[in-house]
C-alpha cells in the first residue's frame, strides 16, 4: 500500500486542473510509472482517434512571466525579472510561488520532482563514467551558478540556496515549453514593455514565451514513439494525438531527436530508442594537434608526416574562408539523411592534405572545393580513420568491454546510463571509421604527387606502397605525404 502520498498528490493535482479550467478527455488517466523509472505519465484509458484533443489548457494556467508578473508590483524586482534570461526569470517565479502558502500553482508545483538525474546533479565520480564524452563539458554548472549569483540572489527570494536554484532551473530545462507568444491577446496587455522583453524570445518568424504548462509536461517521451503534440494555434493550448492511440498505450510527447548524451544532460534518462541519434564529436584542435605534432600512423605501417604550424594555420584559414571550419564536428550513425562524416570535416581534412598547386588554385579562387565524392579520397579516408581511432582511444574502455559491463547486474543506475552514452558514442566512432576506410576517391591532388610544397623530406612509404624518392630535392617537391 502506498505510504508516500504520491497518489494523493496526483489526485490533488487533477482536482486543481479542473479548477484551473483544464478540460481533460475522460479517455486518459495519469499513471504511476515509478517502477519503470519514469515518474508519472499519461496513458490512454480508451482508444483515441488521430487528432483527438487529449486535454486543453487555458493560457492563463501556464506558469510564465506574463501570468505571474501580474502579482508582482512595479519596482526593482519586476524590472530585474524583465531584464534577465527567460529561464532565470522562470526559476525566480517558481521559487517565489513555491514559498507562498496561497500560491495559485501550489498543487501543480507539488507534482514537480524533488530529485533529478540530469547531469548537473552527478558527482565528479559519477561523471567520470562518461569517459571522453564531450557532454561533460556542456553541463555548465559553474556558469549557471554565476548567473544565479548575478540575477537571483539580489532578488532576496526568501529561502533559497544554490541547490534549490539548480533543481528549479533543471526542472525548467526538462519540463518547460517555448510557446508562441500571443501579442494581441488580452492576457498580455497588462505586461508593460513585453514586446521588447527578452523573456519573449524571437525564434525566427514567431515570438515565443518560456512556460511551465501543467499536465502537458506530464507526458514522457521515447524518441519516435511520440503520438501526441502540443498545439498552440487555438485560444487554449491543446494536447492532441498525432496518430490513433489504443487503450492502455502510453501517450508520448516528442522531446526531439536527441543523442543520448543530451537526453541525459537535459532530461536525466536514456532509452535505446534514442541510440540512432547518438553523436560523437571530434574537435578541430585535436585534429590539428594530431596533424602537426608528429607523424600520424595510417594503416599498414604508413606514416603521414606532420605539417608545420604555419602551414596548418594557412590551410585552416582557407577552411574558414570556405566555410567548412568548425570548432568540432559531429559524427553520426549513417542513415537515409546522410553519412557518418559531415562534408565539412571531409573538406577540412582534404585542405590539410591537398598538394601545393591545388591548394593555391583554391586560395586564388581559380578552383573551388570539389563535391563530396571527390573530397572522399583514399588518403582523406585513411587520415580520418587514423584521427577517429585516436579519438576512440580517449575513452578508457572499448566497445566490447562496455557491452560486457552492461551485462553486469549490480551496475548503479547512473553508471549504467553513462555506459550507454559512452558505448553509443564509440559505436558512432566505429561506424565513422568504417565509412572513412571505404573512401576510394583518387589521391591525384593529394600531396603525394607533383606538388611544389616546400616541405622537409619525410620518412616512410608512399600510400601506394612505392618507396620514397631518394633525391632530397625531388622528395621536397613531392610534398608532405610519404
Ligand atoms: C516533462 S517530464 C515528464 C513527466 C515526468 N515523468 C514526471 O513524473 O514529472 C520529463 C521527465 O520525465 C522523465 N521521463 C520522460 N520520459 C521518460 C522515459 N521514456 N523514460 C524515463 N524517464 C522519462 C525524465 O525524468 C524527464 O526529465
UniProtKB/TrEMBL annotation:
Q: Which GO terms describe its biological process?
A: methylation
List the InterPro entries hit by this protein, alphabetically: Rubisco_LSMT_subst-bd, Rubisco_LSMT_subst-bd_sf, SET_dom, SET_dom_sf, SETD3_SETD6_MTase
Q: SET domain location, by residue?
A: 26-256
- Keyword list, A-Z: Methyltransferase, S-adenosyl-L-methionine, Transferase
| Renumbered residue ranges of the record's region Disordered | 439-482
Q: Could you tell me one molecular function GO term of this UniProt entry?
A: protein-lysine N-methyltransferase activity
| UniProt biased composition (Polar residues) | 439-453
Keyword tRNA processing annotated: no
Q: Give GO cellular component annotations, separated by semicolons.
A: nucleus
What Pfam families does the record point to?
Answer: Rubis-subs-bind, SET
Q: Which domain of life is it from?
A: Eukaryota
Q: What is this protein called?
A: Putative Ribosomal N-lysine methyltransferase 4
Task: List the source organism.
Answer: Venustampulla echinocandica
